[in-house]
Task: inverse folding
């Protein structure tokens, strides 16, 4: 069996990006916690900034570019997601939302998920609970209890950021081990359980 | 008619010409359609297919009226649709109108059924978009019944019941118009087409070819599953979109302003990106030939190729020139090239005459001219309306065996 893969989605716009930095830390914490479970996993970074134009085009035409199709595949095929966004106007960034908007419905159901957000001050930290959690609830993802919000000041003070990151990483690792995602069956697979035959549509089978 | 049919199909948009700022009137576009159809016949194309919409900026609300008029102005052209809304139209009216058109056009008619993708059309016609698939299944089952049984007793979930109903006129020569089922990515519709042994049409424009490929593959496989023949014998139609000039540079220069602000894909990817990802070809006739021949690589040998040439505000004279190039430079080569690689045993494109001959041979032809509809046993599995009502536990249902309609 191949190693379980974690897709690390980050929607930071700056370069370097504190959002990417938080995503990296959450990734490392998760990999370490999985190793403690005796599981060796790998992570793949899905950085949205270079995909911004492709995401807009996809919304207009339904056609993903090759790069975007590859990024979407990394996310929907992963065993878990770490999703991190900057906070804009009390919410996730439009880029973050748009990326998840172009993923087909149902593709993320049951996937273990850890959330993170960054912002200028801790006063924005409600973004996790007012915006991110509702969206991932709609997507039917399994989201871990801890969500790490990193304000600018957290990067330069002893505010417990490391502790919170480690806790969230452990929670995601625990969830991946205890409740791994269930794959949706392919409705085009004639022998699969999601395929609906015409007899079934008619109620004869 | 050869083994493949080639034609043009249109969504009937009224769009400003971005190079002149002029928007054609409805009247101009409607008359333009007639000119396009006549031109298509004149240059040797086989099919003209009319879209159906019930909201501006589209004008084609009444395809059988349009096609009836075109039928009177042409002699050879097959009149078809792209698509006929099987969800929101009354299947009884579809049965009547297309049988009527069949008689008036001497059998030069078939139709492509689709669900429609304009949300508000459903409530405007008293339906619910969430019932889209179910409506397509139930309404088509009734449509078939009306075309295959002289007296119909029917009860379903989405329409008032029929008792002792005879659809008039009866299909010409006792053979109903050929039906294609169109869908971009709903496996249930590929399955429906396969179940009945009808044709499957993929619009094959605006979308990556992967959608076309997996829909056609499923349809072919299930066509064989239901005993209609080998997968290669299923009847497949594809769309395509082209714009041609003598050189690729000229074609791109002329088409780019239309592309950049086009209603469907404008303001998005570049012309180059979009032609790379989708079947759109903007270039020389040779490039169109090359790209179209490659459709066979993922769809197999197929029966009908339709081209979109008149959208996004292209002026009529430009559209007529495109039809001219298709008829004189592109389609003759495509016919020859496709024929030269076609596998043995692949059926020809459907025509009324061939279908009548086949029905005579198989003894499945109904009484001619409706005067002596052949009595035939009602196949239980065609009684879809009742089946759907049954599952939904509607009053009058007979229990609730079976599982939910997806």
Result:
């Amino acid at each position: 069996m191949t190693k379980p893969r974690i897709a690390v989605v980050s929607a930071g716009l700056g370069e370097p990006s504190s959002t990417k930095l938080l995503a990296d830390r959450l990734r490392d914490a998760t990999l370490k916690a999985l190793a403690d479970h005796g599981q060796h996993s790998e992570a793949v970074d899905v950085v949205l900034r270079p995909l911004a134009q492709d995401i807009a085009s996809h919304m207009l035409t339904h056609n993903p570019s090759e790069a975007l199709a590859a990024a979407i595949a990394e996310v929907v095929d992963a065993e878990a997601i770490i999703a991190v966004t900057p906070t804009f106007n009390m919410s996730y960034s439009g880029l973050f939302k748009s990326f998840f908007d172009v993923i087909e419905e149902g593709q993320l159901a049951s996937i273990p998920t850890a959330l993170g957000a960054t912002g200028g001050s801790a006063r924005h930290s409600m973004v996790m609970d007012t915006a991110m959690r509702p969206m991932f609830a709609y997507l039917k993802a399994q989201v871990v209890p801890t969500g790490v919000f990193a304000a600018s000041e957290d990067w330069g003070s002893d505010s417990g950021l490391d502790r919170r990151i480690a806790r969230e990483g452990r929670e995601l690792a625990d969830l991946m081990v205890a409740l791994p995602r269930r794959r949706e069956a392919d409705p085009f697979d004639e022998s699969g359980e999601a395929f609906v035959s015409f007899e079934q549509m008619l109620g004869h089978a | 008619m050869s083994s493949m049919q080639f034609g043009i199909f249109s969504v009937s948009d009224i769009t400003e010409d971005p190079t002149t700022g002029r928007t054609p009137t409805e009247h101009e576009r409607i008359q333009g359609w007639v000119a396009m159809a006549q031109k298509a016949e004149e240059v040797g194309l086989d099919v003209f297919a009319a879209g159906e919409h019930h909201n501006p900026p589209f004008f084609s609300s009444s395809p059988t009226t349009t096609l009836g008029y075109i039928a009177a102005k042409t002699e050879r052209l097959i009149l078809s649709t792209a698509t006929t809304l099987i969800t929101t139209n009354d299947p009884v009216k579809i049965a009547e109108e297309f049988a009527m058109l069949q008689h008036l056009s001497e059998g030069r008619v078939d139709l492509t059924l689709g669900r429609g993708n304009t949300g508000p059309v459903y409530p405007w016609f008293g339906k619910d978009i969430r019932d889209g698939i179910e409506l397509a299944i139930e309404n088509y089952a009734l449509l078939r019944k009306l075309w295959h049984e002289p007296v119909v007793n029917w009860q379903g979930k989405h329409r008032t019941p029929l008792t002792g109903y005879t659809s008039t006129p009866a299909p010409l020569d006792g053979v109903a118009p050929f039906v294609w089922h169109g869908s971009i990515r709903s496996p249930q519709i590929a399955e429906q087409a396969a179940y009945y042994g009808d044709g499957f049409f993929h619009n094959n424009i605006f979308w990556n070819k992967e959608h076309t490929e997996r829909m056609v593959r499923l349809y072919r496989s299930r066509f064989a599953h239901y005993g209609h023949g080998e997968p290669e014998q299923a009847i497949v139609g594809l769309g395509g979109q082209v714009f041609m000039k003598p050189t690729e540079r000229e074609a791109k220069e002329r088409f780019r302003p239309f592309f950049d602000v086009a209603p469907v894909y404008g303001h998005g990817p570049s012309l180059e990106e979009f032609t790379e990802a989708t079947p759109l070809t903007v270039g020389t006739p040779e490039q169109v030939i090359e790209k179209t021949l490659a459709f066979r690589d993922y769809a197999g040998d197929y029966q009908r190729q339709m081209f979109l040439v008149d959208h996004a505000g292209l002026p009529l004279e430009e559209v007529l020139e495109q039809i001219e190039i298709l008829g004189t430079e592109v389609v003759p080569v495509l016919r020859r090239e496709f024929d030269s690689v076609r596998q043995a045993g692949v059926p020809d494109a459907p025509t009324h005459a061939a279908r009548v001959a086949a029905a005579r041979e198989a003894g499945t032809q109904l009484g001619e001219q409706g005067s002596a509809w052949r009595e035939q046993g009602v196949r239980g599995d065609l009684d879809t309306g009742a089946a759907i009502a049954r599952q939904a536990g509607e009053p009058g249902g007979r229990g609730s065996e079976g599982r939910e309609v997806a």
